[in-house]
Amino acid sequence: MSTTRSPKEAALDRRLLELLPDSLSGIAQKILQDDELKALQEYSNVVSIKRLGYNDHGPVHMRMVAKNALEFANLLREAGIPMSLEAEGIGSFEDSVFAVFTAALLHDVGMSMTRQDHEHHSVLLGKPIIERFLAQHYPGDIAKQVILRSLICECIVGHMAMVRINSLEAGLILAADGCDMEKGRARIPMLINTEARLGDIHKYSSAAVERVLIGPGEEKPIAIEILMSASVGLFQIEEVLSPKLGVSPARPYIELYARIGEQERKRYL
């Protein structure tokens, strides 16, 4: 198990730094290059793919979730929609983005223990890393550290839609996680596991998803469009993404579309 970055990870790191405010560039680079976090992400992927036969839950997936969440956050800001910390007068956009970014990179590290309740295990394993970087970026500001630690934990615990979340920040992580469904995520499990087994619908439906496009909507700040090669990909929308959006505080700001090949696109939200 290597702690070096793959070309895909390096490309995503560059994209993440482009999406982040300049004020977070320094701490973001430290988080992305952290050896402990990298090792946790890598081992989570070993357990997910090799031991359990699931899709990618490692460093690439967690970076994809961070990318999606940051794109959502920036689109909301462009539309004049404040994040929860801003609306409540207890933090800035940069504070919210720090929380979202950190949570995304830690949300699945609990897979290194077990699939069941892994979101709670992610908080347990991620807490020392969260506190270490909060202390570095907000030295001496105990109130801000406490607020962001709780917010980051809410984002992590809420990403499976099993726990009710209340912040827009956590809602973005919930939506961003559901949006990582492109076929590359199922590539390794498809190669390793060739025999039929329960749960195959997840990897086959993911393999049918060609692209996930995120941009401004026609009526709402955010539009998500899923491009797929076959109708089996609808499973990812109807059984994975839509239920998450249904309970996400970000739902009022999102349009959701699906398109199979050259067919007319279908609107879900």
Task: Summarize it.
The chain has 269 residues and is α+β, with helices and mostly antiparallel strands. It has helices at residues 7-19, 25-32, 35-51, 59-78, 84-87, 93-106, 118-137, 142-157, 168-178, 187-192, 200-207, 234-246, and strands at 209-215, 222-228, 254-260, 266-267.
What would you say this structure looks like, in words?
- With 269 residues, the chain is α+β, with helices and mostly antiparallel strands.
- It has one domain (7-267): Catalytic domain of cyclic nucleotide phosphodiesterase 4b2b, CATH 1.10.1300.
- The protein is 56% helix and 9% strand.
- It contains twelve helices and four strands.
- The chain has a four-stranded mixed sheet.
- Helix 12 links the parallel strand 2 (222-228) and strand 3.
- The longest helix has 20 residues, at 59-78.
- The termini are far apart.
